[in-house]
Amino acid sequence: MKSINLSQKLSGICLAILLAISAQSFAQNVEPTPPIVTAIKAGKLIDPAAGTVLSNQIILIENGKFKAIGANLTIPAGAEVIDLSGLTILPGLVDAHNHLAITYKVVPERNIYYYTYITESTALRAIQAASNGMQMLSSGFTIVRDMGNNGNYADTALRQAIEQGWIPGPKIINSGIIIGSVGGQFWPTPEMGAKNITYPEYLDADTPDEIVKAVRQNLLYGARVIKICVDCKPWGYSVSDIKLVMDEAAKVGFKVEGHVQTLDGAKRAIEAGIWSIAHDSGLNDEMHKLMAKKGIFRAGTETPITLPEHTTPERYAKTVASLKNAYDNKVPLTYSTDADYYVPGKTRGEVAIEFIETWKAAKIPNVDILRAMTVNGYKVSETESTRGPIQVGLAADFIAVAGNPLEQIDVLRSVKFVMKDGNVFKRDGVMIPEKFLHGGPVNGWNIR
Ligand SMILES: [Zn+2]
Questions:
Q1: pLDDT of 444 above 80
Q2: What is the pTM of this model?
Q3: Residues whose CB is under 5 A from ligand 1 (ion)?
Q4: How far does the centroid of ligand 1 lie from the alpha carbon of residue 279, in Å?
Q5: Is 4 part of a structural domain of the chain?
């Protein structure tokens, strides 16, 4: 018989105790806990798709999702009741084109990107992104498409941090690094070139092999949409190049947005059948008609004249006319800002909401401005069956404002209440994100 020494005996006893404890805690874990129900008393409830307003609705929320919505619902005993009967509830807003991990400024950059890239690390920019995300959420944006210029994947880190439950923030649909011909949107010196300054703001890809590899790199590092520079260089991407990007992204079910700044670039992107086009400078009446026919989303990034450092009266007049033309042609319009700069005195969310000025100037009816900010935002983000609409079974995200945005769109400038995934983020106009802050990843590690 083999002899057993004392330490072996002790470790055997310890193991037995540990097993007993873990069995007990397992038994405790599987005890059914009653679901936490929140009941919202909604004074008015807007459905932007239908353009309707319902009065005195009850919204029940359980486990972060809408459970029931109606006028005559019984509030379950023990439910937490939130009385918003004095407010108007509507689904969360979408900014279809923002850059949360870059904040260029007049000082010291004079609004030139290059400088930001060399003075601010990806780590610092990820923290900026966390802050900008909360500022967007506070202004009612529950979904943000973050379309590049985020250093070395600060956008993926932001998305993961929000999904894992470390910090509050909008649902992030991120692009990873913008893919473009050599140099991206830069014209670097030979000394700086691709190795020193272009990457990681842009991912150089000129040949078909490089294009496939660049798409795969972004997929590997956590992108949820692919962004390309269609015509940042005069040679740009051909129709077949764009289709190659689309085919590669489609292998994992993702879509492609094109940065387009010229008419030729717009023609190529539209011919390829791209998902969405960013910016309006390449778009005219003919392009709008083609986009409407093909159902290509327009993320026009219409900078308002009320942000005078970022447009000119001449440019603004063109922006307004182009947006109006797109609306008249029934192009699928999304609300998009391209916000990537600091405006003194404004949060990132307040900068984003300022863009309603351009939509008002284009004389777009309030209900259609709201549809661009909600319904079409969910479509371009491909969340419409999981998040966005206030519907049973979907993520419990919504906002509340005083007044009716269908009558006065400017009430969106002052969001009083924000719920995300069933948790209150803002109440009585004040951010109270306690429920979102934890010492651990409450939603798990394994979300890529
Ligand atoms: Zn942009």
A1: no
A2: 0.91
A3: 338
A4: 8
A5: no
